[in-house]
């Protein structure tokens, strides 16, 4: 099989510096205009600037001590010891543009824009290698459209995709088939723990499809909702979960209005789970549930010292502006969701003005608002951390934030994958999708996708029809 030549656009390297090592046996080609754009973007403290400097270091290490003839012949691509999940070690070569293109700029591409220079370079490369497929790789949709018009095969950069389709993302729960108990009841063990929760250890055909901290339930209501505590080679241990629905126990005055909310509250209140992700459309109750669980564990149970609430300011990684005041005051305009939900949790028909003021004063001392821009290098010990709008984070940024957790801390990531505002991020390569997939099955992590909106009948109708 003939290997392909991939021409890399600047935005691919800005998005993922390790893209140089993700094309397996195929060759890579970097036009000179791409190096110029990388040089122009190297200064600054943004995530893009850091990525550009990392690309420059990779290229410098490969080109160090190499003569002009070796560069012309192509440089071998090392893996640099990178942990590239499910990818082969690169065996292709890296080529730089070393001479001007021998084709003219088509009349339909006027001007001297960098994108047009990349297209001309790719056309010249096609003419130079007629027996090989030359493909332009870019995250710029408009450049891919222009490439298709000029007869150049173009593709999006797909190596950073967590999933090929968002429908493949785990929801965190599944319905058990009819006859589950009869098929798995042989040699089943059951017991009750110190807290009065029932446990079942069983084996059978459905066991291999389960993973730790996944919820299972019976569609017809013939049995209780359960959580998978552990999965062995032949057996799984299931535990009956707590019920926080109306008429049962509440969490800071909040009851679960549907099954998914009840599952989410079980994860949020479980001391053995350190990392929780909640996905859902607007109005499904993500922030309200996370905040109620945090207040219950911080103020009532003293499990955490304080709640830290943060969210991504779009554009991500840039300065949050010349707003007056401290970091917390600068973040206030972004925290409308926090304030709205605090109003719901603290409202009381019986409380007077003084009581409400005292409650708000107490909460202001135990809930801290922080910006993600200043998280690098910090360590949070015994904190309950809520990361809102997490769908706007890249996988690298998500890793930076999650590794801030110290002993006794819990991180809750909230997001709606249909509302991504960060350039070049999609539902399949968002940092939130990345962590949901990578933490799947970890014994101290859990995930639930909230399906039903509970904000109001107006919001529910708008979500479904607009």
Automatic annotation (TrEMBL):
A Pfam family that this protein carries is PIN_4
Coiled coil residues, start to end = none
Boundaries of each PIN domain copy?
4-145
UniProt-listed InterPro entries: P-loop_NTPase, PhoH, PhoH2-like, PIN-like_dom_sf, PIN_dom
- CDD domains given in the database record: PIN_VapC_PhoHL-ATPase (cd09883)
Instruction: Kindly list the GO CC terms recorded for this protein.
Output: cytosol
Q: Which UniProt keywords apply?
A: ATP-binding, Nucleotide-binding
Question: Is this entry keyworded ATP-binding?
Answer: yes
Q: Supply one GO molecular-function term.
A: ATP binding
The family note in this entry says:
In the N-terminal section; belongs to the PINc/VapC protein family.
Would you tell me the protein name for this molecule? Phosphate starvation-inducible protein PhoH
Q: Which organism is it from?
A: Abyssibacter profundi
Lineage, opening ranks: Bacteria, Pseudomonadati, Pseudomonadota, Gammaproteobacteria, Chromatiales
């Amino acid at each position: 099989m003939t290997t392909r030549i991939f021409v890399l656009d600047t935005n691919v390297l800005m998005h993922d510096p390790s893209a140089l090592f993700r094309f397996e046996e195929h060759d890579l080609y970097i036009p000179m205009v791409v190096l110029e754009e990388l040089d122009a973007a190297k200064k600054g403290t943004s995530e893009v600037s850091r990525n550009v400097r990392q690309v420059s270091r990779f290229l410098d290490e490969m080109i160090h001590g190499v003569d002009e003839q070796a560069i012309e012949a192509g440089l071998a691509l090392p893996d640099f010891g990178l942990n590239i999940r499910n990818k082969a070690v690169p065996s292709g070569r890296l080529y730089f543009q070393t001479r001007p293109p021998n084709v003219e700029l088509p009349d339909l591409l006027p001007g001297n824009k960098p994108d047009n220079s990349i297209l001309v370079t790719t056309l010249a490369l096609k003419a130079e290698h007629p027996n090989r497929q030359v493909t332009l790789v870019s995250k710029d949709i408009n450049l891919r459209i222009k490439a298709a018009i000029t007869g150049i095969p173009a593709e999006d950069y797909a190596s950073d995709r967590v999933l090929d389709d968002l429908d493949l993302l785990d929801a965190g729960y599944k319905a058990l088939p009819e006859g589950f108990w009869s098929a798995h009841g042989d040699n089943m063990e059951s017991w009750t723990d110190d807290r009065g929760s029932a446990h079942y250890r069983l084996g059978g055909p459905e066991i291999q499809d389960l993973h730790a901290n996944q919820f299972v339930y019976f569609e017809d209501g013939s049995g209780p909702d359960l959580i998978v505590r552990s999965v062995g080679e032949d057996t799984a241990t299931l535990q009956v979960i707590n019920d926080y629905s109306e008429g049962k126990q509440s969490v800071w005055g909040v009851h679960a209005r549907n099954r998914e909310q009840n599952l989410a509250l079980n994860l949020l209140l479980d001391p053995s789970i350190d990392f929780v992700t909640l996905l859902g459309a607007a109005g499904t109750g993500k922030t309200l549930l996370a905040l109620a669980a945090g207040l219950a564990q911080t103020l009532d149970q003293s499990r955490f010292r304080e709640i830290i609430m943060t969210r991504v300011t779009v554009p991500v990684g840039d300065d949050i502006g010349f707003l007056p005041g401290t970091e917390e005051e600068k973040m206030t305009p972004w925290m409308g969701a926090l304030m709205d939900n605090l109003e719901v949790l603290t409202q009381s028909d019986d409380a007077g003005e003084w009581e409400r003021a005292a409650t708000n004063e107490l909460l202001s001392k135990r809930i801290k608002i922080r910006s993600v821009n200043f998280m690098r290098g910090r360590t949070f010990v015994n904190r309950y951390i809520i990361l809102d709008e997490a769908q706007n984070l890249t996988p690298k940024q998500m890793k930076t934030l999650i590794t801030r957790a110290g002993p006794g801390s819990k991180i809750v990531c909230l997001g709606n994958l249909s509302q991504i505002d960060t350039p070049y991020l999609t539902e399949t390569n968002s940092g939130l999708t990345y962590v949901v997939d990578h933490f799947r099955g970890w014994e101290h992590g859990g995930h639930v996708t909230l399906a039903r909106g509970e904000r109001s009948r107006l919001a529910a109708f708008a979500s479904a029809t607009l």
